[in-house]
């Protein structure tokens, strides 16, 4: 292995270690083929929570994940791990009804959703469907 390769690997590792989120409840290491929705669905973390907790690491399109990068899945005390994957044709009302929660609670835990129309949910998106408020 060349010196340059070892140096780049060490710098990359140091960047990931330094960029850990304080009070992280759960961590995940990105593997080839990962996208935000697949990580969220596999690890019961809402798409909003994943992006919010890793602000500055994950861009809005979630197209900048780096293999080997460590992501925080939730903050201690604010880690919603009860989730639902949105299906084609779902509305906020159908997601809330299936989860046994109010639409108000669903929207409170998923502040990225348009509260007046709920028109911006898409199939594959993962929503927090916990029976208590996690987003403060």
Strand content: 5-15%
Structural class: alpha+beta
Question: What is the typical, i.e. mean, pLDDT?
Answer: 87
- The tally of helices reads 5
3D shape: globular
> Helical amount among residues, as a percent range?
25-40%
What low-confidence regions span 5 or more consecutive residues with pLDDT below 50?
3-18
SSE series: HEHHEEHHE
Instruction: Outline the biggest β-sheet.
Output: 2 strands, antiparallel
Give the N-to-C terminal Cα separation. 48 Å
Radius of gyration: 17 Å
Beta strand count: 4
Strand order of the largest sheet: 1-2
Structure explained in plain terms:
This protein is α+β, with helices and mostly antiparallel strands and 136 residues long. The chain is 33% helix and 13% strand. It is built from 5 helices and 4 strands; from the N terminus they run αβααββααβ. It has helices spanning 3-18, 36-42, 47-53, 92-99, 103-109, and strands at residues 24-29, 70-75, 83-85, 126-128. The strands form 2 sheets. Strands 1-2 form a two-stranded antiparallel sheet. The protein has a two-stranded antiparallel ribbon with strand order 3-4. The protein is globular, with a radius of gyration of 17 Å.
